[in-house]
Each structure stands twice: as C-alpha cells, then as structure tokens.
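Section 3.1: Structural characterization of target chains.
Under the original work plan, the team committed to producing a structural model for every single-chain target entering the pipeline before any wet-lab resources were allocated. The record below documents one such target. The sequence was received from the expression subgroup and is listed exactly as submitted; it comprises 322 residues.
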Amino acid sequence: MENAGKVGLFGAAGAIGQSIAHALGAAGRDYRVIGRSRGSLEAAFGRDPHAEIATWNPDEPASIAAAAQGLQTAIYLVGVPYHQFEMHPPLMEKTLAGLSAAGVERLILIGTVYPYGRARSQPVTENHPREPHTFKGQMRLAQENLVLEAHGRHGLSTLVLRLPDFYGPGVERSFLNGVFESAARGTRAQMIGPIDVPHEFVFVPDVGPVVETLTRTPEAYGRWWHLAGAGTITQREVAAKAYALAGREPRLMVVGKPMLRVLGLFNPILREMVEMNYLMSEPLVLDDRALQALIGPIKKTSYDEGIRLAFAAAQDTQKVAA
C-alpha cells in the first residue's frame, strides 16, 4: 500500500460519508467534504481540523471540476430522491467529466446490491450476473457501468464498493432506525415485512476504515468489490434485542407488500419501495472473501454490539428531546 494523496467525499453529509471522514481523520489524513449545503457540512465536519469544506452544483461540470481541484481520490456518495433514480446516470456522467477536467486519479463509487437483481446463489460473489429486474437496479447498473468504463481513461482508475443495507447509531436513512427510536420511546415500531427472513446489514462505522484502505490500494481498481455485514439476522430479532435493551416487550406494526401498494397511492417513497420488496422476502447475502484476501481481515461489529450502540444513540436523542 502507498501513502495516498487528498481525498474528496462527494455527497459527504450522509452516514456513510461521515464514517469515511471519521476514518480519514483518525488516520491523520486531510480530506475535503463536498455537498450542496455548506451549513449541513459545517454541522457534520466543522470540528475536524482535517476537514476542508467545499460546495458544488452537481449539475455543472465546471462546478464539479472546481470542487475536485487538487484531489487524488474522489469518493462518490451522492444520493437522489428514492422516486427519482433516473437522475443517477446523468449525474455520474457530469461528475466523471468534472473529475477528468480536474485531473483526479481515482474514483470510488459506493454501490448497492440493486444491480444484481434476485440472488441466484448464496452467498453472492463478485461473479454473480448483474441482471436487475427493477427500474432502480437498472439505473444503478447504468451508473456503475459509467464508472467502470471510465477506468483507464484520462488517467483515472475506478472501483465500485458494493454494500448491503446498513444501520448504526443515528443512521436515519436505515430502515431499522425506527425500531431503535420506537424502543427508546416505548412506542410501536413500524416495520416493512416480511420480518422473519434472514437479512444482511453492515454497521456503518465499519465501512469507513475499509474505504480509507482502498484509497491507498492501487491494485484494487478496475473492478467491483463486496463488503459484507457480520452475517445475517432477522428484523424481528433486531426488534426483540432493541426492546429488551429498553426493558420492554416488542410492539410492532408490520407493513407487507400489499399494504405498501395501498400506502404508495399517497406516498411516492413508499410506492417506490414496492418493487424493491423482493430484497426483504428473498435474501441476498454478500461474500467479501475477495476483498479480505486483498486488504486483510475486516473488523465487523457484531449485531448484539451494533444494536446496543444504535439503541443507546436513540435513547440519548430521546433524552435530549425530552
């Protein structure tokens, strides 16, 4: 491994971005966080002396190039509204143009399992076909292909790191977050079913150190890799553990696919969750032995410990709110 240059996190303000930033800061490395809103970036990263804050307009290649100036590695974490996934490929095209103009050498896309479609074997290795049957999977596949096809062009090396669903302390975009908040409040948790199927989650703070390592591992580029969670767990088990920490019996309201369809008539986000519900009913578990062979053993927080930390964070938030 090498001593890598400066890293820029595009779309940094989310949970994964904060995990990566924390790992970079802990390694004593300077980094740049890039987002639309200076205020949210200041709130998240303003106390880290290693962080430099920059804003961008991802619709403007000139703005992208300015935000990327002087970076060796770009990490792409840009989200789009769940009902507007068609935005992913054009945003990536503009970003690639801006990165090339700025002379960035490496790009890491934080990806998802969506491009695989249904799992044909378990666990899923990197050799699994990418044949998504959903619109969101197709848009993510198109985004990935743009990144992978850019490898070796204009001095750019690229890779995709594929993550399963994630959870962690204060991770609002995790669909498990409501369970921890409800357990802390003593209210009924709303969950998207089925909740008795084994599911894989990665603990967000475990992601950052892996990405930090990949920024200085040149041989990792030109392909995609998997980062798996600490095995599987059912959502019901997560709820049971969280409510037990609160000293309460679980109180759950489970919304299945038929009810999602009904609620989707009124809520565009829930409407979009219908086509992805196969991931709840048909497990897709990642195999990350290839990544571990490349970079060595990966620290993975157990579900018991991860749930304890996520519940404690929800409890602290509850105390502040009270």
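The mean pLDDT is 94.
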